[in-house]
Design goal:
heterodimer; A: mainly alpha; B: mainly alpha; 5 helices
Chain lengths: 426, 169
């Protein structure tokens, strides 16, 4: 009953254009008024967050990603991938996949990253004879995969919401991301063969070495994060701070592309995004406080346990639900709103939280490129100047690749858990 | 005027962020190179971060940047749209009033508590909740009046490139 009122109020507020964070707040306030709860504990949960030091990783990762972009690292990495795979059929498309994946997760918004990488990769693809619509569909698809990479803000937010280890989850995303990326590259190869698109340029060792030398210094930034986490040298927050200082130093003193103005712009950009993400996180704490109080997950899971005992069926139901809401809601609010309800249910069925997180993220990736409303797809279409209906035919096989990877990782938790179990004691 | 206020707020946030990065980084360096971890650094970073989050949320509100759904209201004829947005802003205003009230009580309740590492009164941090809620209420009230007078929505003058409403750029 109370839950119904809360959800109803939340949806109604969204409909009249109240920002999501305030709609969450309004829903929980109304629920608490109706059940005459004391507001204080919920209010306190909005600021006395238990582990705000871990949350601090979010702005630091955002700042590091932004600094890498401002320091010209995008173009250097695109150049490196071209020197590396330039002699394969469909090389430019594969370069696009690699670059989009590398940058997909850094700002916590697949939309922003697709915009950054897409404008570097899509125009040359079109010039080389790729179909406009295919280029848009491919870069959008690959861009969402960044959500699985170790620089992903979405995974950090998931780990914090689900109360699981950030480092473990960031490492867990690596194998699924690489396998799915490889599948996309293979698809590009066959696509290029069918369309008769040749390779870009002959292989040249000199060129490769030069490109590698140019990319290695900025490329260390994500490497700092990964090795720091895996080696247990720093916490994710500290890894973020080290990456920020390194990226700023390189940008300012080695490449001299970053001045005070750029540094300030990066800090302002990071602060504003931090503000909107954190405000959403704080209000969702109040929301999930009510959800826990009303024992919503228990109600749902006892209902479901009465009807099915198959974890696969539960996965299927959640997948369908996430695909539906993920097309119009961004990943951050999707995680914050649904995880407190879904994860306890999944755990009732014996699903590992880390495995669940990865499947959940692949789902969001698919939802973000789903027509007609997927937000990343919109961005990619904007850059390639194609319409939603033009982009749909080349998109369908690419979404097929993502769906295939979803099925693989639903059925093979061992593949997802391989690295985390290798690096971290259970 | 409003642009100037927003700019100064953004610079304030940027300053906080610089200090946070410095504090966390110095702690890592201290721990690995001088074997002298700082006892206060995590707590200081955490407190500044809470302030940064709330002030950043205020800056995001002033820039019209908070996440919202693609909305049907935008399709309404102008007068109805103004009416609907005013209603939704009034509801937000009511929520903010509750937050100011809750926040003030919270500060009141915890006025004798001190933080473990640096022994700072804990309400220095908690004050962010009522204060920022109050400032947000001012922004929303200002916006209601401006809209009724035929003024634009928040965020229209955002100088930076904003790809679409509510999306981080």
């Amino acid at each position: 009953m109370i839950t119904g009122i809360m959800m109803g109020a939340f949806l109604l507020l969204l409909l009249i254009d109240v920002p999501i964070a305030f709609a969450l707040l309004g829903g929980s306030m109304i629920a608490m008024f109706v059940s005459s709860q004391n507001l204080m504990p919920a209010a306190q949960s909005m600021i006395a967050t238990v582990d705000s030091f871990a949350l601090l990783a979010i702005p630091l990762f955002i700042a590091a990603g932004d600094l890498m972009n401002r320091g010209g690292i995008t173009s250097r990495l695109v150049e490196l991938s071209r020197a590396l795979v330039g002699h394969f059929r469909g090389s430019l498309a594969q370069t696009g996949v690699v670059a989009a994946m590398l940058f997909g997760g850094v700002s916590g918004s697949a939309v922003a990253d697709t915009a950054a990488v897409g404008s570097a990769v899509i125009p040359p693809m079109i010039k080389q004879g790729y179909d406009r619509a295919f280029a848009a569909a491919l870069i959008g698809t690959a861009g969402t995969l960044g959500m699985l990479m170790p620089t992903s803000i979405s995974l950090i937010i998931f780990a914090l919401t689900a109360n699981i280890s950030i480092a473990k989850l960031l490492v867990a995303g690596l194998i699924p991301a690489l396998i799915t990326g490889l599948m996309l590259c293979v698809y590009c190869y066959f696509y290029a063969s069918r369309k008769g698109i040749e390779f870009t340029d002959a292989f040249s060792l000199r060129r490769l070495l030069r490109a590698a030398a140019r990319a290695i210094v900025p490329g260390i930034t994500p490497a700092i994060i990964v090795t720091g986490l895996v080696g247990g040298v720093f916490t994710p927050t500290e890894a973020g701070a080290v990456a920020v200082v390194y990226a700023a130093f390189i940008g300012a003193f080695v490449y001299r592309e970053l001045d005070w103005k750029g540094l300030l712009a990066c800090a302002v950009h990071t602060s504003v995004i931090t503000g909107l993400v954190m405000f959403l996180i704080f209000t969702s704490f109040a929301f999930s406080w009510v959800i826990t109080l009303e024992r919503v997950p228990e109600t749902f899971s006892s209902y479901m346990l009465n009807n099915t005992n198959s974890p696969l069926f539960v996965f299927l139901l959640m997948n369908l639900f996430l695909l539906a809401i993920g097309t119009f809601l961004d990943p951050t609010p999707t995680i914050l709103i649904t995880v407190p309800i879904f994860l306890p249910i999944a755990m009732q069925y014996g699903i590992d939280p880390t495995h669940f997180a990865i499947v959940f993220t692949i789902n969001m990736a698919i939802a973000q490129v789903s027509p007609p409303a997927g937000t990343v797809l919109f961005t990619a279409c904007g850059i390639a100047r194609v319409s939603m209906s033009q982009v749909t035919p080349p998109l369908l096989p690419l979404m097929g690749v993502l769906l295939l990877s979803l099925v693989i990782f639903v059925f093979m938790p061992s593949l997802v858990l391989l690295l985390p179990n290798l690096f971290f004691a259970k | 005027m409003s642009v100037l206020l927003r700019r100064s707020l953004e610079y304030l946030c940027a300053g906080l962020l610089f200090v946070i990065v410095a504090v966390v980084f110095i702690n890592v360096v201290g721990r690995y190179f001088f074997r002298a971890p700082l006892r206060w650094s995590d707590e200081v970073a955490q407190f500044l971060f809470l302030w940064l989050s709330y002030l950043g949320a205020l800056a995001a509100l002033m820039g019209g940047r908070h996440y919202s759904l693609p909305n049907l209201i935008d399709l309404l004829p102008a007068r109805l749209r103004v009416a609907a947005k005013t209603v939704s802003d009034l509801i937000v205003l009511a929520m903010l009033a509750v937050m100011v009230w809750c926040g003030t009580r919270l500060v009141d309740l915890l006025q004798h508590q001190r933080s473990p590492a640096i022994d700072l009164p804990i309400y220095y941090v908690y004050a962010a909740l009522p204060l920022v809620s109050f400032l947000m209420a001012l922004v929303v009230a200002f916006q209601i009046v401006r809209r009724l007078r035929g003024g634009p929505e928040l965020g229209h003058e955002a100088a930076e490139s904003v790809p679409s409403r509510g999306e981080p750029a």
